[in-house]
């Protein structure tokens, strides 16, 4: 377990360089550091004079930008080599360009589609991915997938042009974007897998995974790990595949799940609630329905310190609030779940009711069950400010 932030270092821990310095040296270093901070802040303020945001937000963004500049200068002062500097520089540029694009589509739900680049157009999985993408577009969702062939191509063929993003990766054997995303302003090219994955995960309100190989397994297990550890918000993770001649799924995901249960759950490597983080869909239509149902009442979530805040589209009745308190008390570290308006530090979606509680920071599969329970409770006439 990680030590608590305020835990003192053990006596035999190596002292930091500042602890070994003479008092006068430490004072000189602090003065130089303070001057550097002031100079950088002045530079950032001048360079962003034309930024058009409210004063509070702009001040906060300028402070973060100043810290970025200061960190960048330290890369040189601390003798990072050229390869390391180049990687950091290119990664930041990729993130800036990608965020700039996605920021234009805030408020629009998006689903990331993963699967094999080798799936041929005649394969049932290809048909399923194409139909799934089209059905999600009909629900006013946008699709994010790679820009290559196979499932990526199918994920672009289904939705109309305005409803798709392409995140390509520069590989020796995958160099061209498919014809459905080629030339689209929503096509982004990435040098690094980690920046590309960040865009998939940070902009997705749902994840649909189709059969694939190592790359697909990397994507699904990374998404599951991020949700399981609380590093990413809980979203529907739906496993989809095509049907055989009998109209039934081909069986890829039941075999995959059999391995997860036998190799991970029964050995104790994952918790009993963790398989609840994903769902195996019976068909593309079933996958769409599961995703849409996830947002029937639930809207979004965030943490405020150790408080988990679940934003809801419609409030719970007092009886329903008492019910979820009783059923999901293991999630609460202290106190109980309450329903209220936005917390002081929240500035998004101020009109939505919140389900708020001190979370144990564990059992995210059970948090998923809480969201499902909230969604299935019937709507009642509840006065809300």
Could you name the key traits of this structure?
385 residues, alpha/beta, seven-stranded parallel β-sheet, 15% strand
Q: Count of helical segments?
A: 12
- Overall shape: it is globular
Instruction: Count every beta strand, where a strand is a DSSP E run of 2 or more residues.
Output: 11
Q: Tell me the β content.
A: 5-15%
Task: Write out the strand line-up for the largest beta sheet, numbering strands in chain order.
Answer: 4-3-2-1-5-6-7
Query: What is the average per-residue confidence, as pLDDT, rounded to a whole number?
Result: 90
| End-to-end C-alpha gap | 43 Å
Share in helix: 40-55%
Strand/helix succession: HHHHEHEHEEHEHEHEHEEHEEH
Poorly predicted runs are 1-17
Please summarize the sheet with the most strands.
Answer: 7 strands, parallel
Helix/sheet category: alpha/beta
Q: How much is the radius of gyration in Å? A: 24 Å
Give a verbal description of the structure.
The structure is a single chain. With 385 residues, the protein is of the alpha/beta class. It is 44% helix and 15% strand. It is built from twelve helices and eleven strands. The chain has a seven-stranded parallel beta sheet with strand order 4-3-2-1-5-6-7, sandwiched between helices. A four-stranded antiparallel beta sheet has the order 8-9-11-10. Helix 2 crosses helix 3 (55-77), helix 5 (124-138) runs parallel beside helix 6 (151-157) and helix 5 (124-138) packs parallel to helix 10. The longest helix is centred in the N-terminal third of the chain and has 25 residues, at 23-47. The chain is globular and about 75 Å long. The model is unreliable at 1-17 (pLDDT under 50).
